[in-house]
Amino acid sequence: MKLVSNFHHTRGNHCGSTSMRDLLHCAGLDLSEAMCFGLGSGLGFHYLARVPDTGISYFFHGRTGTLERDLCRHLALDFAEGTDDDPDHAWHVARAFVDADVPVMLNVELSRLPYYNSRTPFPGHRVVLAGYDDARAIAFLADNAFDLLQEISFDALRDARYAPIASTLFPLRNYWLVVRSARDHTPLGEAIRVALHENARAMLQTRDAYSGVAGMKTLADDLMNWGDAPDWQFCARFGYQIIERRGTGGGAFRKMYAEYLREADAFVPGLARWADAMIEIADVWTAFALALKRVSEDEERARFDEAREVLRNLVAREEAFWRGIAQDG
C-alpha cells in the first residue's frame, strides 16, 4: 500500500478549492480553501440554454472552469496538468506521481463514484488521489464532502475518469493536475491584486453573452422561457441546487468569496468592505435559489416572475460590485 507522505485532508465547501488546498499543503504552502478559491479568480457565471446533449434544457453555474489552473498561475507555482485518452496510461501517470509523494487532482464523473450513490450526472467533480493498494485493487481519494479518504476500486475510478456520458460540453479525458512545489511563489498581496482584477475583467469584459454579468442579463431575459421546456421543474430544482447545495458553500460561491476577501484584507487593506458587499450579494443569490425551488415545487405550470425580479436585482448588484473592484486600483 502507498499513501502520499505528509498528506492532510479535511472536508470543505467546494471540490476544486478543497482539492487545491490539499495539494498546496502537501507542496509546502498552507492556504485556506477560501483563499485558494479567490486566488484562482474562481467566481464566475456561465449560462447554457438549449444546448444539445447536455441532459437538461437550461443550466447555469457560478464558478469559472479554470480555477485550479489560474490559482497555480497567479502564484507562479511549479505545476503540471494534462489529459490522456488512454485510461491505462492515465492510471500509470497518476500512480507514478503518488509514488513520488505528489498527490494528484483528478477530474471525475460524480455519479460514477460508488460512495456517493448518486444517479445525477456531474462530469466536473474534483478529487485528489492520495494513495492506492495493489493488494486490494483500490485507490484512496480525498473528496471535499468527506473528512476521511474514500476507497474506490481501480475499475470504478477508471470508469469515473473516462466515463461515456451524454454531454459533449464536458468530456471526461482523464484530466489531472499536480503541484510539484509551492515553496517559492508570488507574494500573496501581489497575487491577490492580480486575481481580483482578472476576476473583475472576466465578469465585466467578456464578449460572450452567456458568461459573466452579460450572461446573468441573458438569463434574466430568458428566464420566462424556462416554463416552456418539458423539464422545467428539473431545471428550476437544479438551479436551486447549483446555488445552495452542490458544493458552493451557499450563495453560488459568493459566501466563500466574501470569506476570501476578509482574509485577503490582511495583505491588501481595504478589501474587508468589499466582503460586506459580497455577503449581501450572496444573500440575494440565496433568495433567487429559494424562488427557483418554489417554482420547482409547483405542480401547475411554472411561474418564474418572482425569480426573474430577484435576478434583475442580483444583476445590478453584481455589476456594481465588479465595477467597483475594477476601479479600486
Task: Summarize the topology.
Layout: E1 2-3, H1 15-27, H2 33-39, E2 43-49, E3 58-63, H3 67-74, E4 78-82, H4 87-99, E5 104-108, E6 125-133, E7 138-142, E8 150-153, H5 154-161, E9 176-181, H6 188-204, H7 212-222, H8 232-244, H9 254-264, H10 271-296, H11 305-327
Percent in helix: 40-55%
The total strand number stands at 9
Give me the Rg, rounded. 20 Å
Largest sheet: 7 strands, antiparallel
Number of domains: 2
End-to-end gap: 51 Å
List the secondary-structure elements in sequence, H or E.
EHHEEHEHEEEEHEHHHHHH
Average predicted confidence as pLDDT: 94
Total number of helices = 11
Low-pLDDT parts are: none
Task: Report the β-strand fraction as a percent range.
Answer: 5-15%
- Backbone shape: globular
Label the structural class. alpha+beta
What does this structure look like?
It is a single chain. With 329 residues, the chain is α+β, with helices and mostly antiparallel strands. The chain folds into two domains: 2-30 and 78-181; 188-327, no CATH class. The protein contains eleven helices and nine strands. It has helices at 15-27, 33-39, 67-74, 87-99, 154-161, 188-204, 212-222, 232-244, 254-264, 271-296, 305-327, and strands at 2-3, 43-49, 58-63, 78-82, 104-108, 125-133, 138-142, 150-153, 176-181. It starts with a strand and ends with a helix.
